[in-house]
Amino acid sequence: MTIRVPYDPELVDGLAAFLDLVEIVPLRADTILTNRAHFATLVPPIEQLVDGHAVEFEHRDVPGPPGEPDVTVTVLRPAGGTDGHSPGLYHIHGGGLVLGNRFFGVESLIKLVEEHGAVAVSVEYRLAPEHPHPAPVEDCYAGLAWMAGAAEELGVDPARILLMGMSAGGGLSAAVALLARDRGGPALAGQLLSCPMLDDRNDTGSSHQYDGIGAWDRNNNHTGWTALLGERRGTEGVSPYAAPARATDLSGLPSAFIEVGAAEVFRDEAARYAQRIWDAGGQAELHVWAGGYHGFSGFSPEARVARCANAVRADWIRRVLTPPPGVP
Question: Most buried residue, 46, 202, 244, 269, by most Cβ within 10 Å?
Answer without folding.
Answer: 244
